[in-house]
Amino acid sequence: MAGHIDHGKTTLTKALTNVDTDRLKEEKERQISIELGFAPLHEDEEIQISVVDVPGHERFIRQMIAGVAGIDLVILAVAADEGVMPQTREHLEILDFLGIRNGIVAITKIDRVDDEFTGLVKEEILEELKGTIFENVPFVLTDSLSGIGIEELKQLIIHTLKEQDTRDAKGAFRLPIDQVFTVRGQGTVVRGTVYEGKVEEGQLLKIMPKGIETRARQLQVHHQPAEAAFAGQRAAINLSGVSKEDIERGGVLVSSEHFSVTKIIDVAVRMVGELEHIIKQRMPIKCHIGTAEVMGRIVFFDRNELSVTESEILCQLRLDEEIVSKRGDRFILRRPSPQETIGGGWVIDPNGEKYRFGQKTIEALSRKKEGSPKDRIKAALTEDKTLSVPEIITKTSLDELTINKLLKEEDFLSINSKDFTLLGIKEVTEEEIYDRLKEFHLENPMKQGINKAELLQAMQKNYPKTLVEFVLNTGIEEGTFLRKDQFLRNKDFYPHIPKSWQKRTENLLAQLKKDEYKVKQFDEYYSAAGIPENLKGDLKRFFEDQELAVPLDGQYYWHGDHFRGAVEVLKKSTAAEFEVGDAKEVLGLSRKYMIPFLEKLDSLGITRRAENKRIWI
């Protein structure tokens, strides 16, 4: 919901949604919007729609830019009694720079003009909109207080959004943060519009550009609890392990490190229709990209100043702080003093370098702008992580011969007979597997590793199974990961007993060893050592995995040394075949221990039972 101050955006939002988006005390007092307001408009089995009410006053342009980033449809509110005003035009230019083409004009406050004047107002507004992105959009006459036109506008919004393409949720998750706050008993919460991909409860995330690791503890979409949030949705995410002070507006929540953290970006820029001041080489600028607002300088390579509006200009932004960006991201440029919007454009390359002044650089930027075949393949793989050649053809419109030639270069990896990925994606996937294993080891220090099936299931939320299998197999071959049976662990991890329980565990094993073959029930050793009930299961598995204690059955365990000693003595003292009596005579044990011991030998494949005899294998 965009438009000039006091043209009825907030009132129109309330009429459509029954939500007052002016939340702050000072907003109520001054009757203007300062921060972004959000209100759910409609939800059915096909679609969810939220209205973003952006501030109209020129001082709050930066909040307005943060609000429109990631928006699918704009309602331009124009008051019938005032018509198109300065901020109306500025909002239109910003929307144009941000690449937003889908719109509706809502002529508000029609109660303030008579019926005869309404037609003249409409003509005047449409005349003002000629030559802008809103020249041919539909319009609706509204009065928010009486309800005139409100239902018509609502149905037009729903119909328009259902007709347009849905956003792609396949890529890596990215959410530029525009609000950070704390909820009592819950911790830190961030809000923003999901630019791309999806996020799920429990997912590991990073706050960029700081690189802070966190986890999505809980999600809300449209103020309702949700298990996942998708591209285009407004989401609130409760984060674990971070404080409000760790995060600021302008940060970006991501699920992948494929997004570049950068201070130098190559860009294609268009300037506003009428420049009031000359734009000079290396002039300070304020760049609004996503929800970030960063100071920097504009660097030209074919001029030293710009005084008249031209078509697209290829240049560079050198920023004072790091931002998170990727090719195709839109931005707005503002002059810090006097404050005014001077232009906007899109990112050609987020990883720009310092180039020489001259036409050669412009030509290089032009080639980069068009995107080389290799760039296009890399962009497609970055989005989907793995693709076959036919899929790459569909994504890039390149021919098969060119694709096959480029896929032989070192940037690309063949992961099976048909699918390809990027070396960088393989490295990121390996890092996430390592991090997941590390977290599992910290929580389960006595377990020998995570079950492979469990790891695959967790990783498949963000990575194709074929890619995870390839990275795992490669990592095992290279020694990054170790596998025993179905369990996986990091190479630098070894199962161990937590320090706080080492002494009591040592006492338990010492007593078990002292009792030799005539042991008590194992639970009695736990009780005597003072080991709590909740640790018994993990300890038993640890003892068995490390062969410190061997279960004869569910009740009796022998110390590992005694078990192995008994096997060795019995094998030396009997023939290839032996009976229970032979074993009793050698070991001197009652049937209470002897029968479970022999059955254990059978289950381990050390012996094989044949009627009343055992045969050594």
From TrEMBL:
Pfam families: Beta-barrel_SelB (PF25461), GTP_EFTU (PF00009), GTP_EFTU_D2 (PF03144), WHD_2nd_SelB (PF09106), WHD_3rd_SelB (PF09107)
Keywords from the named record: Cytoplasm, Elongation factor, GTP-binding, Nucleotide-binding, Protein biosynthesis
Keyword GTP-binding: yes
Keyword Transcription regulation: no
GO biological process: selenocysteine incorporation
Protein's name according to its UniProt entry: Selenocysteine-specific elongation factor
Function: Translation factor necessary for the incorporation of selenocysteine into proteins. It probably replaces EF-Tu for the insertion of selenocysteine directed by the UGA codon. SelB binds GTP and GDP.
Tr-type G domain sequence ranges: 1-165
Organism: Sporosarcina globispora
UniProt-annotated location(s): Cytoplasm
One MF term in the entry's GO annotations: RNA binding
PANTHER family xref list: ELONGATION FACTOR TU, MITOCHONDRIAL (PTHR43721:SF22), ELONGATION FACTOR TU-RELATED (PTHR43721)
GO cellular component terms, A-Z: cytosol
